[in-house]
């Protein structure tokens, strides 16, 4: 059954290639994965069917004669498609592994030109396994290739020189929504490849330090931190903001007396749990807004921190200041249960009645108070 399936798939792919040649339209996204699965099917079948090829049924014998030829056009087709996508959008983890599968298939085909190795299934099996192993480390590895590709494009489009220095720092503040969407897409590509750290040399010093800290202590928060820090993802804040402010200028938090910092946390009057706003769960300290209180919870313990009075004491001009020139204001809160929090507020939104509906912040706390 497998040989007829492979032959039928080859016919369909060749017909699709003919359609592209006649219409002049380039291959779509899906063709890379289709050809990848087809190539893996053909190679796996060729290796597994080795003992039966010579004396098998007609489809099996036909497959034995044509398997390598059947890969030429699909691989060319997929090569064009993946080349177009990489040229336009850079390498992502998915495109890397599609390209790796195509390279493995092409090398197996080249081996067929060597008479001594032409029917050696050990060589056919070793090539993809070796390439897969090499993808795990080094400058040719998936993480390095995706990181270099995406960071290069991010810096080229969003990099600006920091006044008074030679440093090029990335920022999307003031860019149109389409540009912010492109930056978010590239950041998620870096996160998927575990390569967000590649951005550190191209960030403003304060954001770079925060990102390094997040990658060490709370890696699940790193993508949220860098999205917000670069001004690439303000939709939830903007939608909640009849009145509010953003404070994006690099600054410091005096953490004296505290031994833990929860980085890039978001609390909202939305009834969903913190983290669901970004599609990921948050470990450790969790926050939500209830009425005029910031509610914090950790390890099954919960405390309410009155918020309205503390926000009311913030300078009025904070709500009209330029976000890039405003350092996060520091607010000290005392919970009903006697616990303490120190917040560095990066974004805040209020409704028409003055109630806080959205809060993004870093929070210092004492672990001993939650044990």
From TrEMBL:
Q: State the UniProt keywords alphabetically.
A: Membrane, Transmembrane, Transmembrane helix
The organism of origin for this protein: Jiella pelagia
* TM helices/strands, residue ranges: 33-54, 66-84, 96-114
Name assigned to this protein:
DUF4153 domain-containing protein
> From what superkingdom does this record's organism come?
Bacteria
